[in-house]
Amino acid sequence: MLPQDQVMKEALKCSGCGFCLSACPVYRVLGVETLSSRGRMDTIRGMLLGELKLTPRMEEILSTCLMCQACEAACPPGASAHKVLLEARHRAVKDKGLPWAKRLAFRRLLKDRRALGRALGLVRKIQGSTSGSDSFNLRHLPTLFSGLSGGRALPALAPRPLRERFAQRVPPSQGVAHRGRVGLFSGCYMEFVDTPMGDAAIRVLTREGFEVLYPREQVCCGAPALYSGDLEDTVEIALRNARAFAQEELDAVLVMCATCFSGLREGYEIVARHLEGEERTLVESLSRKVQDLSAFLASRGLARKLLLPEPMSVTYHDPCHHVRGQRISREPRELLLSIGNLTLKEMAEPARCCGGGGSFSLANAELSVEIGRWKVKDILATGAQAVVTSCPGCVLQIQEVASREKARFQVLHLVEVLDRAEMEEGGVSRS
Questions:
Q1: How far is Cα 177 from Cα 187, in angstroms, rounded to an integer?
Q2: 3-state secondary structure at position 47
Q3: Which one of 50, 81, 389, 421 has the lowest number of neighbouring Cβ atoms within 10 Å?
Q4: What letter would DSSP give residue 385?
Q5: Position 148 pLDDT exceeds 70
Q6: pLDDT of 431 higher than 70
């Protein structure tokens, strides 16, 4: 997946000093050396050198990493542990193949939004036949879906996917100066589950003067396949998305999910190395155009002075793939601090992983929840009315753990806060 010399160079950077141990969320909970950043790097190094074979224990070591990159931030020589782990997972897939559930998801569902929609439609029918609660435990689903779930709760699915709620092209709001044309990458969660979050994003962008294009041909970002070591399917997914967004001239392709952003940016850079000619150009072009929505708005500046209808105190949770993966931390806070009637209360460890980690929370459900409890305690200590973040996966994880802990605070995506805010009286739109 990555150049062999680059992978070994990163693997050999680890001196075993142990600075990473206190940063690793898995080690902080389990206290198991082989599942720590240092222990995992040592094991993978043996695997890459051919000294260790892929055993069930080795597979456990490879799968119990959140890829939060907290260890990299603490590492004195700056070893890129997630790149080494990516290569190890890729070799594991080449050696033993994918589990049946991932094989079905990556090769059939994530490449085709219609097929995924039909599969989720079946889930919705089953939801309707269970209790009237908004969510239920996935062990009640057929084997197919429970095999993908790890027993975690499934949020209620939206009645209609986001693509059916808007035209493919949405013009700027009336009376607002046109500031550009952007593409919106929805991600699977916003497309099928939290469509109101997508509504909010489109309202915010059009009020800010941007024409929004929503290509119907877009599919999953491919991060689940990439981070599982499945390069083959990631390549096909990347090409489908690259072709979908290449149909129009766009100033940027905006993403509201930190994991999607990391997949589309860093992941597609990896994919491009395995392509040639026009295909490589297409994927590289999309990767360059992808921007996080908060970073994009912060760089362009808000066209309106915003004011919340009522005073609200919030704290901000930094998604791992933002703060460490792409160095995005200042921008969302700038946007929050620009809103009237809003008070920002920083938590002790805003960049501490919430324990979500995409499919990690399915494969390691109880461990994921235990890691999340530390995040909930940190949020509660601030006394804030709400925690705001820029990743739907973090929203879902924190909501579930907070519910288990009976913690009373709102969990909001940044775009929902921007959408709630109204134009302050006298706040004039830019021309």
A1: 28
A2: helix
A3: 50
A4: S
A5: no
A6: no
List Cβ neighbours of 425 (8 Å cut-off, separation of 6 or more). 307
The one-letter amino acid at 386: A
Q: Are 226 and 263 within 8 A, CB to CB?
A: yes
DSSP code at position 349: -
At residue 361 the predicted structure's pLDDT band, cuts being 50, 70 and 90, is confident
Query: What are the structure tokens assigned to 183, written together?
Result: 């593409």
Considering the four listed CATH numbers 1.10.10.1760, 1.10.10.10, 3.40.50.11810, 3.90.550.10, the one that applies to the domain covering 304-423 is: 3.40.50.11810
Q: Tens digit of pLDDT for each residue in 158-206?
A: 888 998 988 899 999 999 999 999 999 999 999 998 999 999 999 999 9
Helix (H) or strand (E) holding 210: strand 210-213
pLDDT attached to residue 146: 42
Please say if the pLDDT value at position 121 is more than 70. yes
**Please, are residues 380 and 402 in contact by the beta-carbon 8 Å criterion?**
no
The 10 Å Cβ neighbour count of residue 51 is: 9
285/272 Cα distance (integer angstroms)? 10
Strand partners, 252: 182
At residue 115, φ and ψ (nearest 5 deg) are: -65, -40
Confidence of residue 127 (pLDDT cuts 50, 70, 90): low
Looking only at the bridges linking them, the beta strands covering 153-155 and 410-413 are unpaired
pTM for the structure as a whole: 0.91
CATH dotted code for 162-298: 3.40.50.1860
Residue with tokens 């409890």, as numbered in its chain: 373
